[in-house]
Amino acid sequence: MARTVRVLVPGPLRSYTGGRSEVTLDGCGPLLSDVLAALDANHPGIRFRMIDEAGRIREHIRLFVESELARELHTKVEGEVQIICAISGGVQPLPARPRLDGQNAVQDFRIRPIDWL
Amino acid sequence: MLRDGGGRRSWNISAPICFGTSVFHIVQDPRDPKRMVLSSKAGHLGPTVMVSADGGRKWTEAAKPPAFPAGLTHRSQHGDQPRTVDHVFWLQPGHASQPGVWYAGTSPQGLFRSQDHGRTWESVDGFNAHEKWHDWCGAKEQAPPDGARLHSINVDPRDARHLYIGMSSGGVFESTDSGASWKPLNKGCAADFIPVPNPEYGHDPHCVRLHPLMPDRLYQQNHCGIYRMERARGEWERIGTKMPKKIGDIGFPMVLHPRDPDTCWVFPMDGTSVWPRTSPGGKPAVYKTTNAGRTWTRHAHGMPETNGWWTVFRQAMTADAGKNVGVYFGTTQGAVWASRDEGERWRAAAEGLPRIQSVEAAYL
Lengths: 117, 364
Description:
Largest sheet of chain A: 5 strands, mixed
CATH superfamily of the domain at 186-364 in chain B: YVTN repeat-like/Quinoprotein amine dehydrogenase
Shape of chain A: globular
Number of helices of chain B: 2
Radius of gyration of chain B: 19 Å
Number of strands of chain A: 5
Strand content of chain A: 15-25%
Largest sheet of chain B: 4 strands, antiparallel
Strand content of chain B: 25-35%
CATH class of chain A: Alpha Beta
Order of helices and strands of chain A: EEHHEEEH
Largest interface: A-B, 18 and 19 residues
CATH topology of chain A: Ubiquitin-like (UB roll)
Strand order of the largest sheet of chain B: 3-4-5-6
Oligomer: heterodimer
Number of domains of chain A: 1
Strand order of the largest sheet of chain A: 2-1-5-3-4
CATH class of the domain at 186-364 in chain B: Mainly Beta
CATH superfamily of chain A: Beta-grasp domain
CATH architecture of chain A: Roll
Structural class of chain A: alpha+beta
Structural class of chain B: mainly beta
Distance between the termini of chain A: 31 Å
CATH topology of the domain at 186-364 in chain B: Methylamine Dehydrogenase, Chain H
Number of helices of chain A: 3
Number of strands of chain B: 28
Shape of chain B: globular
């Protein structure tokens, strides 16, 4: 079913969105890959900066779907995708993560991004 | 962009272009001087290419940047990995008879061609998908620390099909059929980091230049010295042995005089132990030959006499086409130095910039 998805865009990618930190996409397919395709159709070139030619999420990009880290592009999207430019670093591995709400997800990610790989 | 403020004595600096991104190469199209192409990579984002059709005022992203075709792999200690472009390292306008054609070299080592002034790029599969690519280019972990790069794309001015490339993990290669097939061209060149005597490939050229007025002469600044090849002879001759022993013949750039195939400039770097990416002894200097490498002279007038702990990358040194040729280089510490008398005397044209990857002279 086509849906409307809100995409939060980080600073380094806002040259593609006319400076906007948030864009809304109408008529998206159900998967993250569909959302990125729609995003690229509206803002040409933005997808390749995040996803390489082998279809992998680039090393320093994180995509959160409904505040959960998405590891695969076939993740289902309900209504929101947040793009994060990872801050490289990290100190020690965390145990397997429980489900986090959006606020904590971003905080943990900024502190220990490596743990999520 | 630094613009001549008059007589190449002073330079006016523009606002930043592609602010916040690493620009590995920015090149003007000699066939259409308002056109330029640059390669760009931001910290978190994938690589791309930008094009300008108005002398660098407005830049537009390539609609299809260089990307390896699906199915190509890169060997690694973790098994074969999909081969993907990390960054576009080198840009080269094509032959004068082929307006709109450009070549790009990438890391990992790949060759790409554009036929529309850099707007869209296609893989040169004769190289990228060659059955010996893995042998020539090695596994991922065999690359230099900054990544293995395809650079020094030279087009023979007599024949658009005749190409040379340099690979920092592979050596110099040649194609006579527009890139459909390739063969190594490393005879006579040392590769003392390879435990095989006189290997056919696997060398580490840093910068290879073909002289447009003498296209059968090549110069090379290599990881293992400075070389010249006369194609009739077919072997690299180490002309860096004539450099002072305490300076050595290690460095990155190789710059040719636009009208005199016997004259070129190099910028020596400390190659004695850990390769600290500094001038030997912290005393930066350009070395120049006017006799194809039989003798070299030191030129450091105006440069720091001590504590010049920087060097110059391979794209970051160039010459203009002035009556007295201007020579320019950008340093790893963010200064641009300029000489208006063929490299004899030097002045800083700009300081306080980020690390400089690329310096090119352009007439607008």
